[in-house]
Amino acid sequence: MKKQTKVIKIQSERTHNRENSTPLYLTSSFCYEDAAQGKDLFDGTLEGNIYSRFSNPTVQEFVDKICVLEELEDGVATGTGMAAVFACFGAHLSAGDHLVSSKALFGSSHQIITQILVKWGISYTYVDASAPESEWEAAIQENTKMIYLETPSNPGLEIVDLEMIGRLAKKHDLIYCIDNCFATPVLQVPSQFGANLVLHSATKFMDGQGRVLGGVVVGTKELIEKVRFFTRQTGPALSPFNAWVLSKSLETLHLRMERHCSNALALATALEKVEGVKQVNYPFLDSFKQKDLAKKQMSAGGALVTFELEGGFERVVRFTKLLTIPSLTSNLGDSRTTITNPFTTTHSKVPTEDKYGLGIYEGSMRVSVGLEDIDDLIQDFTQAILGSK
Ligand SMILES: *Cc1c(COP(=O)(O)O)cnc(C)c1O
């Protein structure tokens, strides 16, 4: 069976009620038939659910689907994407260890690395996402334990060469951990390039409709075992309700990503021709610097488009007032087109010089292109850009 069929077919065992849709096990704990069964469950003689901080059938169903999509053995779901990021670090890095990471990261991931891990004696080296292999390799030290990255990055859409990093991780025997949130496993499967730990903010495209928070980590059995110990004890469990929503949403992920990507490519192409737009970034645009690399490792360009408006932040305010379709919000991966000004929102705490280094300017806009009719979107963006001159 192909993945698209599997994500529809995988589900908790049908109950005596003969339900067609998947049941929701909204329960904090599970009963023992007798005290002996309780003992066996706790000492591991018997495998089964005990308490939903440890495991839950609805949550497991969601994890099973992600394992199939990411082609990895085992996984753990978390309450948010950030809990997934922190669980990967917390489970695998110890005092004295060193992390090599791409510089272009989600804001909170950057905060964890630079403000929290360092408190516990875990050091890091940042490398530019598009740096050559020699630069990535030079960052690796004796005590390096993990390489961490996002590709495409947020909001710069920089592409990291997954195959090249896979080669380095293997050569230096490092954990190769990727936040695959922007591409989703529909567009890019990092394990095919050697990644052995892949995480997601399920809040984004996996939900796809802006309703619930969630996260997930999948990887090799050996690496997940440590992540599972970490999350069991520290407690960032995914709610069964959110898992149920996410599991149902995965049934339409392939279909949604197809439309997100075709809409995004069409909008990016149209924006390039509108007066007042300085620079449009989209991985599958002909003008995109890393287009060849993007096409090598992704099957489509994703839903995110960024562009810079001439006229700085004052123009941004006028432009967003004139837009009628998109929601002005910092979330992404929604059926609704969402738009934000990263300079003053998601990246407001990053020093200005660093923002410029990441290609984030006062007039930069990040668009997560939704599932609306593409002609309506192009028309709306065009009138708002021209009208805000
Ligand atoms: C949103 C996001 C996160 C954090 O996920 P939450 O579910 O908000 O905790 C991490 N990485 C990337 C790339 C994201 O877009």
Automatic annotation (TrEMBL):
GO terms for cellular component: cytoplasm. It comes from the Bacteria. InterPro entries: Cys/Met-Metab_PyrdxlP-dep_enz (IPR000277), PyrdxlP-dep_Trfase (IPR015424), PyrdxlP-dep_Trfase_major (IPR015421), PyrdxlP-dep_Trfase_small (IPR015422). The keyword Flavoprotein does not apply. Keywords: Pyridoxal phosphate. GO terms for molecular function: carbon-sulfur lyase activity; pyridoxal phosphate binding. The modification N6-(pyridoxal phosphate)lysine is found at residue 204. Belongs to the trans-sulfuration enzymes family. This is Cys/Met metabolism pyridoxal-phosphate-dependent protein. It comes from Leadbetterella byssophila (strain DSM 17132 / JCM 16389 / KACC 11308 / NBRC 106382 / 4M15).
